[in-house]
Each structure stands twice: as structure tokens, then as C-alpha cells.
Amino acid sequence: MGNKDLYKYLIKDEVRYLQRRADVVDNPSAYLRFDVNERICPFNKKLLNELKNSITDKHLSSYPDLTETYKKLSKFLKVKQEEIFLTSGSDLPIKSIYESCIGKGDSVVMPSPCYAMSQVYALMFGAIVKTVRIKNNWEFDIEKMLSSIDGNTKLFILESPSGTTGMTVPDEEVMNAAKYLLSRNIILLIDEAYLYKNERKLSVSEIINKYPNIIISKSLSKTGGLAGLRIGYLIGNSGLMKYISKVRPMHEITSFSALAFCWVMDNPLIIDEYLQHLEDSKKYLKKNLDRFDIEVKNTCANFMLLHFNDDKIKDTICELKDREKILLKTPFKEKPLKGWMRLTVGTTDQSKKIISIIERHYGK
């Protein structure tokens, strides 16, 4: 049996035909990364030193004890411990739902564009993916998504805010969808990886107990600034979490990840300072980009969207990677986002670098 035949025999079709893309950047630390939607603001030095000084041998040599982490997170979220499931990053919470609830032939409804791993896991587990393109105003087409449900649908995914557009879904629409989906025995997954301001009328506890089919996915990669430590978690009704948590690994997150997670929860200044940086930088960028022929849209996430009406400006800015030591996201190529570019927001000083580059090249 040749290698190709061997692989065909060994690897299941759902994995063999998956298309995955690797984003590789040589020496990424040499660049200011406006392309990643991570926290690019530096941490408070005093608090960061406190974290460094709290690291002991046991954080490296011992398996994690997450008892204290679950207690702190339960208190932080004002939910019961059995309503939380700690996981690694923002993608493994989603994978846990697929592992425990989705089988071959089940259908999953999600918006397009959507977090890439939502579709990857659907295909990996043999599910049928039903995508519904966002409206021309970038809002989710909830009505059309609901009409895409069939007798095999088990999972319905919303992002709020969207990791692509930064748009949120109004509470009323979410609750109406949840009510209908509950009547059809369908899970509603709300991916809140990019949420940094919670303006809900209902508490998380009220939501998951009123609608036991709702699962909320959160991440410490964005607002918490801990993307490198891969920390995420699910919040849901205890009855549902009881089963989903059965697919957890031996240890949900590492000892050091747990230490850093508790550090963030114990020091609200970490997030407060970051949110202030975002607010100040967004105001600065909007004010200064208005001087150029560049459209700007604010978002409810840690990025803004720019549209360069002058292709010369857009192309030149995107080609300045090595000279200016910055990385920018390639503009979207498909409607309704065609020509728009995501720009990660950092400190005002970091934002000044973008404005300075435009000024130097176009003299406006």
C-alpha cells in the first residue's frame, strides 16, 4: 500500500478534505501588529512585575489545581461554578460543544463571515454547514438564519460583537431567537470573544436560566490581553454544562494560565486601563483620519474599520511592512465588506504611528 493509499485508509474523510490556512510572519515581535486584534497596549509595569514575582517552581512543575480559579471566576461572573467550563483559548470552547453535541449529518447555522474555527469544527465532525451572509449594512440577517433551520439543526451561532465587523446583536433579537430555538431544541451559541463592554439588561445568570439552550463563549485573549496563554470559558445552564464538561481534557488550562487569569480578575485596573486606551485611541484615530480620504467605522470591539477611497493610499500603506515595521490586515475582498480593512486599536501613541505614516507619504 502506497503512502497516499495509506493516508486515505487511515484519515477520515472529514479531516482529509479540510482546508486550513497558516498565517506565518517571520520575526513577528519586530513589528507593531495592527493586524491581529490582540491587545497591543503594554501592561501596567507595576502589575506585570507583581505577576512575574508571583511565579514559583510549582507553576512550572506541577499539574494545575483550578479550584481557586473556578471560585474566582464564579464570583467575578456572578454565576454558579457548575455553570462554567474553563477551556484553552476561544476555539476549544467551541470544539467542546461540537464534541459533546454535534454528530455526522447534524446541521449548524452560522453567519458569514464568522470565526473560522466554527466552520472548521463543523466540517471536522461531519456536520452540514449553513451560512447566511450578513446584510449590506453589516448586521446579521437573523430572520434568514432562522429560516435556514431544518430538522437536523442542532447548533445556531451568533457573534456579538462580530470578530469581522464589530457589530453586536441587540438583546431583544438574541432573546427572541433563543426562545424560538429552545422550542426547536437547538443550542444558541453566543460567541463574545470580542466583547469588552457588557450593556445587557439581563444578567448572565438570568439569561442562561431563562434559556437553558444558550451557551456563551468568552475569551481572555482580547480584553484580558492574555492571547499567548490561551484562556477561554463557556457559561451555560448547569444541566447543559454537566454534559459538555465531560469532554474536557485532564486539565483545562495550565498552572501559569490560571495564575495569570486570577491576576486579571484580582486587578480590575488591567482591563480599566485597556478600555481607556481603546476609547482615547478611537477618538484620536477618527479625528485624524477624517483629514484624509479615508472612511472610518467604529466598532464594539478592539478594532476599527477603515476604507481607503484612494487605492494608491491603500496599496502603499499595505506595502510599508518592512520599512515602517508595522503589520496591517489585508482589505476584505468580498461584498459587503470589500475594500474595508480592520485596524487593531492600541494606545494613542501607537495610533499616532499610523497617522504619521500617512502624513509622511501624502503630506496632508
TrEMBL record:
<dbReference type="InterPro" id="IPR004838">
    <property type="entry name" value="NHTrfase_class1_PyrdxlP-BS"/>
</dbReference>
<dbReference type="Pfam" id="PF00155">
    <property type="entry name" value="Aminotran_1_2"/>
</dbReference>
<dbReference type="InterPro" id="IPR015422">
    <property type="entry name" value="PyrdxlP-dep_Trfase_small"/>
</dbReference>
<dbReference type="InterPro" id="IPR015421">
    <property type="entry name" value="PyrdxlP-dep_Trfase_major"/>
</dbReference>
<dbReference type="InterPro" id="IPR015424">
    <property type="entry name" value="PyrdxlP-dep_Trfase"/>
</dbReference>
<feature type="domain" description="Aminotransferase class I/classII large">
    <location>
        <begin position="48"/>
        <end position="356"/>
    </location>
</feature>
<dbReference type="GO" id="GO:0030170">
    <property type="term" value="F:pyridoxal phosphate binding"/>
</dbReference>
<dbReference type="InterPro" id="IPR004839">
    <property type="entry name" value="Aminotransferase_I/II_large"/>
</dbReference>
<dbReference type="InterPro" id="IPR050106">
    <property type="entry name" value="HistidinolP_aminotransfase"/>
</dbReference>
<dbReference type="GO" id="GO:0008483">
    <property type="term" value="F:transaminase activity"/>
</dbReference>
<keyword id="KW-0032">Aminotransferase</keyword>
<keyword id="KW-0808">Transferase</keyword>
<keyword id="KW-0663">Pyridoxal phosphate</keyword>
<protein>
    <recommendedName>
        <fullName>Aminotransferase class I/classII large domain-containing protein</fullName>
    </recommendedName>
</protein>
